[in-house]
Amino acid sequence: MNSSKSRNRWVSISLAVMLVLLLGFSLIPLVSSIFLGNQRVNQPVTSLESRWESEVLGYEMVLDREPDNQTAWRGLLEVRLKQGNLPGALVPLEKLAQLNPEQTDYQILLAQSQQQIQDNEGAITTYRNLLANHPENLLGLKGLVDLLVQQKRIPEAIKLVEDTAQKALANPKPSLDLMALQLMLGEIYNSDGQYDHALAVYDQAIKAASSDFRPLLGKALILQKQGKPEAAKPLFLEATNLAPAQYKKEIKELSLQNLPG
């Protein structure tokens, strides 16, 4: 189920942007399923729940004595996730994020968890705090942009990406992938149905980096969505030729969607 949801999200949001952040988006299924694995197999639910509660009590006793014991906080987080208790996972996630300010995965997981329980403003605050200290973190930026777009706060999402790009350009040695920011901006316009703006962004990106398959793919997906398969076809072919081997099959599958007949 989770892999199916991840695949649907991959396709619908557009591979052009997702590939930029491929490593980070291993988090997309969200923390509620990370540690589950096959834990429930061949064990009665009541037995598991009893064991988990005993583990929670043990970790809490350790934390009463050692409030900064990260091993205990991680153990408590793992158990809460096995229980499917996402609200209960927020406290250990918040503490781990606090204890590891340079390890941004905890902050991103916290924001995703807050979003999962419909605390969108809390998630926005977490993402903004992350970006205040790590403005180069593309995964955090993409998470915040997606959330703003989901809430129909399109101008705010556009401004966030444009401001980030301007700051990056002002840096003689920018640490951000400027192409990723362009693709992100194009995707915002795409998701809002502003196809002309999105196409303009992708055309600009194609001129700036003719050997990069991502803007070609982004443009092809929009043309495909507009019912222009013949115009999209050569772009899909060029994107496939330029893409790394591990992405070629995915692009070919995208190119075959929504074809007439």
Structural class: mainly alpha
Q: Describe the global form.
A: elongated
* Succession of helices and strands: HHHHHHHHHHHHHH
What's the count of strands? 0
Topology:
Blueprint: H1 2-13, H2 15-18, H3 45-65, H4 70-82, H5 86-99, H6 104-116, H7 120-133, H8 138-150, H9 154-170, H10 178-191, H11 195-208, H12 213-225, H13 229-242, H14 245-255
Helix pairs in contact: 3-4, 4-5, 5-6, 6-7, 6-8, 7-8, 8-9, 8-10, 9-10, 10-11, 10-12, 11-12, 12-13, 13-14
Describe the structure.
By secondary structure, this protein is mainly alpha-helical. The protein is built from 14 helices and no strands. The protein has helices at residues 2-13, 15-18, 45-65, 70-82, 86-99, 104-116, 120-133, 138-150, 154-170, 178-191, 195-208, 213-225, 229-242, 245-255. It is elongated. Residues 1-41 have low confidence and may be disordered.
Keywords:
261 residues; mainly alpha; disordered N terminus
Task: Give a brief outline of the structure.
The protein has helices at 2-13, 15-18, 45-65, 70-82, 86-99, 104-116, 120-133, 138-150, 154-170, 178-191, 195-208, 213-225, 229-242, 245-255. The chain is an all-alpha fold and 261 residues long.
